[in-house]
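INFO  loader      accepted 1 record
INFO  loader      residues=639
INFO  predictor   begin
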Amino acid sequence: MLKKISCFLVFIILFGLKNVNAATYYDKIDEHGMWIKDEFVNKSKNGNTKYQQMTLIVRKSDNRYLYCIEPGKSIDENKLVIGYDTDLEMHANLTSLQRDRIQLLAYYGYGYGDHTDIKWYVITQFMIWQTNNLGYDIYFTDKLNGNRIDKYVSEMAELDNLVNRHFIVPNVKYGKINAFINEQEEIEDINNVLNEYEMTGSANVEAFKNGNKINVKINDFNDGYLLFKKEKKRFGGKSVVYVDEDNQNLLLPGDLSNVTQRINIKPIYGSVSIQKLDSDTKNNAPNHEGTLLNAKYGLYSNEGILLEEQLTDKTGKINFSTKLSKNRYYIQEISPSVGYQLDQTKYYFDIDKDNYLININTYEKVISENFEIIKTLENNKTGILEFEKGVKFGIYNKNDELVDIFTTDDFGTIKFKLNYGTYKIKQLTSYEQYDKIADFQINVRKNGKYNKMIFQDNKIKYKVKLNVYEKYTKKPIKNIKFEIYNGKNEQICEDDKCIYTSDENGVINYNNYFDFDKYYIKLIHDENYNYIYDDDILKFEINNNSSYKEMTDYRLIELEYFLTEKKEQPSIVEKTNDNVINENPIEQIENEIINDEILDSDEIIVEVPNTISNNDYTFLIIILSIYAIKNYFKNKVII
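INFO  predictor   done
INFO  writer      dumping tokens
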């Protein structure tokens, strides 16, 4: 009795002074605290086999059982060995994985739950040896150093399962909980370990367990959480490893650290955004001159209560700011943007935990009008309008960019539709001899409007004006008579007048309208035969390439006809200093013409003497013609 007391006093002295967080213990170990009946194992390594009957190892100070960590080593029962409750893997020369598994085996093995039979000590010790076998082949035998047998297979599987499940924590889909404010959500633990944990939560969260499910509700817009904690406290202290260089390393089972899991709870609310798109292009580019900006939309409850109004931005986007609870809602356009029709569709959507961020595309129809253009021809002969087939029209936008080209059908008709905007219509082609209509502008503003327009291409009207001039002086000549003929050699008359006479301005205005054709004007004569001509025929043609002067209602073709006025033949007298007439008048005239002073004068006056012969006169005319042509733009030659 005294011996036991003295040992106890030593234990009190050794441990009574240590800090509660100290990591050292001292004790002696009883290797054979109890022999376990019919439990035999062999440990073989490098051809050597150690066989033994299983015993319960206990700490001598309090008879608490321990587990052997190192198979194949003995225990000195009389030696005081040191124990540590921290850094177990370092002191016992284990890996962290071995440390955790050995601690878990010791906790869930002998003494846990219904594991009260001594066999569970054997099973636990056997599985610890397997965890840190140090190269030994360890197996059960049917007797001491007997035959190898399989034993406790199902029990070891059960213990293995407990160990493997220890660190499994409650889990929910996506690792977090999204919950609508004041809406109770039922969440299932997909790991099916909820019953092993205590559950608490933040102040704004209400939650309770219902089997393997959690009923949770968050009460405000602040983030919340649920905290799950598993406590394993059955030994009243930490695990301790006893180590000594001459002894077996041993484990005193202890409590496990808490396993915790925090699951965040996110208060959620529904929100909705819309993207306005053009129904034709299926994108958010405005159609022609329309715009997606400032279309007004309303957000409504399922009962039709307006919750919010917003205007689209320039890309057709709206993000409504109202926080929506679980329910059904719809959006609807209140007023359209410029160039688009009002969309009266109600776009319904539901808000729930799986679908609370809503994006809706709305397809808007642009304003458009229909057009029909009928093209006709004026027929001066019949007075009946004819359809103008195959005429092309170009449609241009406000930037004068070509939008489309249409061609009239057999009935002179084109039909087309234009979207909102301002356009210019240009007639690109026409029939020969017919004018095009003037460009015109159309404005598309009213949806569905039908526009029908009839246009007439008038035949291009040509008139002819003849100007009669003296060839050299360019002075108009009056009272000159002409006839005019078409390409079929048919004479053209006005009423009963078929011969036309130039007026005092030398002008003949032919008042008839002329078609495309070849024509010629024929000189009849002048009243007193005072003129000579180069050709009595003036030919011309009217076609698309003819030069003309644009008048109010017609095009004027101006022609010129030149006649040369006849002159009397004055005598040529050359006076010398001796008042002697030059016997060679032709030479004298030639000398006068080429004289610099004469060439520099405004007029060259040549007097032809009466005594000149006909042959000399002809020669003189040739000379004068040459010099007259040469100096035509510089001098006037008067014979």
